[in-house]
Amino acid sequence: MSKPTTVERGLELSILLTVVGIVLFVDGLSDAMGWWVSLGGWGFWSGGVGIALILIGSIWLGSILMLRKKFNILIVEKSRAAFVRALDELEYTAWRLPSKYDMKVLEKKRDMGVK
Questions:
Q1: pTM of the model
Q2: DSSP states of 11-25 as a string?
Q3: How many domains does the chain have?
Q4: For the chain, is the Cβ count within 10 Å smaller at the N or the C terminus?
Q5: Cα Rg of the chain, angstroms
Q6: Do residues 102 and 7 lie in contact, with contact meaning Cβ atoms separated by under 8 Å?
């Protein structure tokens, strides 16, 4: 069973969400200040939705980057005993990341001789 799109393409989606939020916020700010875009009174809503999307996208992006950092720290373990102790945490972290991280865990388990 494959992973959901929000997991497989989470990094790209979170960046896209943040960029769309920035564009909406700038458009709303432009409408409120009367710069170059006139949204006919919808600038307030555009700015509000933009701020919400920026928050959601940046928090999502931060969580993905933190998971990748944690995975990279756990996967470089040289000691077999320490690897086995951290295996549950490593597999759970890989489960929350795209499928290529599951393949890296399987390869590392094979290299370490763990079933």
A1: 0.83
A2: HHHHHHHHHHHHHHH
A3: 1
A4: N
A5: 21
A6: no
